[in-house]
Amino acid sequence: MTAHYLFEPDFCNVASGWEKGIVEKNVQDAGRSVWIEAKTQIFSSFAELNAWLDVRCRTLWLEVEHPDYTGVTIADALEREQLYLMPMPTPFDGYVEVLARVSSTCLVTVERNQYSVPCHLANSKATIHLYADRVDVCAENTLIARHQRLLGRDHVSYDWQHYIPLIERKPGALRNGAPFADMPLLFAQLQTALRHRERQQGDRIMAKVPAAVPTHGLETVLPAVKQVLDSGVTSIEHVLNVLSRLNELPIPVQVETSLKLNEEPIADTARYDSLNDQEVSHA
Asked: Exposed, middle or buried by CB within 10 Å (0-12, 13-18, 19+), for 189?
């Protein structure tokens, strides 16, 4: 981090807090009042809490006087100091890197929690980048999975799209597989309808729907599924017909050009009649 931001660390002696310019004491006093006020608020996520803390701390800078300069607030001192600071580079990518092994069920374990990865990485090794709010899984320097970090223990975070190759081989996994419990609601509705109408082939046909997501994208497949459900006819033929339309080649877009014809062509088929008046010799 020092190489990234180009500064030299200046360490204090052990248990010598007074060498920090009463920074710790001010932070301790301000922290107490801020957290007491935070207890009166309701936050739905850590992101919302962090946003509130950012606004509250900046407001506090306008109220707290600088310890070394009378009549100058922390906000005033910061504004003056910014004139002498270097430009801010790209934020430092701070994370804890861990090497983990992917299990046969396509899961990696990080701090007693498990996260899913694509099926083709089963029984291989992956690099984990552990952030404060998320977990990135990389293989061969390529990001292959991203999950929100689980703060508890013994929890599992699935991404059902990681298991699409599995259901192509074993369609029955759609019925009781834990990763597919978080599929979109439209997929679950179509799956239920196919089970009632086509008991033997329902899972096999349903497996073709998620299989189209890697190629066409979820934003394209979902409207197609909704079209099938809205029609009220959830037969095998209808599902296959809608999926086949996704595989059709798109119509080429008209290319705009600034070139113009001096003589616009005229669609006149009568001009071919003039050929009858000419004598044509055949060998």
From this structure: middle
